[in-house]
Model the fold of this input.
Amino acid sequence: MKHKAANKRRVRRNTPAEEARIQEGIEADSDTRVITARDFGRMRPFSEAVKRGRPKSAVRKEPVTVRLDPEIVGFFRAGGPGWQTRMNRALAEYVSKHRRPRA
Done:
């Protein structure tokens, strides 16, 4: 049984005239420059250059599902991004004010 290629599309190469126009456009672009060996030597992988995501929290939060009144959620969401953090802070403040002393 013969295997067929999964993708039958072929890449169409530029004609010499198309390639010449592309090269002219590259040369005319003031933002284009030739990368030197020195430039390559200073390059770093993207994963080293950019730290992605937010920093890890010192306290691991516990994911929960809770049902709240729409007006409560709406109030916090209306404040924009960070609404869950603000809600957590409000609950933490409540807990600190209402915590019973340990025996």
Observations:
- The CA atoms of residues 15 and 21 lie 10 Å apart.
- The longest helix spans residues 83-98.
- The chain has five helices and no strands.
- The mean pLDDT is 89.
